[in-house]
Amino acid sequence: MLMRRIAERFQHSTSTIHRVYYGVLRFLIDPAIYKAIVCPASADTPLAERIASNRSYMPYFKNCVSEVDGTHIPVALPANVNKAAWRNHKGSTPQNVLAICNFDMYFMNALFG
User: Fold this and answer.
1) Strand ranges inside 14-85, DSSP E
2) 34-46 per-position pLDDT tens digit
3) Cα 58 from Cα 34, distance rounded (Å)
4) d(Cα 13, Cα 36) in Å, to the nearest integer?
5) Which stretch of DSSP H or E encloses residue 99?
6) Is 27 helix (H, G, I), strand (E, B) or coil?
7) b/e map of 81-105 (b: 16 or more CB within 10 Å)?
8) Nearest-CA neighbor of 76 among 88, 94, 91?
9) Contact criterion met (CB below 8 Å) for 58 and 51
10) What is the pTM of this model?
């Protein structure tokens, strides 16, 4: 149903939407890509200029180097998978994504599960 809505919204076939959607998902979970675009924080990670230069942020966020947010992305499971094991309390089958970004909007970590 999600693929049909996206296909209608962008005026492409469901097969095109499916191919692109899963291509992006495979791209994001590829270990080589993950290591190339994700930059974990270290002791040398500088404080964001936005925080360092703003007196209203500085006292409260002086050690903050990133932001965290999570979301659930609906997915379609293959026919041979037990869908009941993947359903959430709302009855859908989502992919849980947790992303950590620095204040320049670069990924520092991402977890898919």
Assistant:
1) 67-74
2) 777 776 777 787 7
3) 31
4) 32
5) strand 94-101
6) helix
7) eeeeeeeeeeeebeeebebbebeee
8) 94
9) yes
10) 0.50
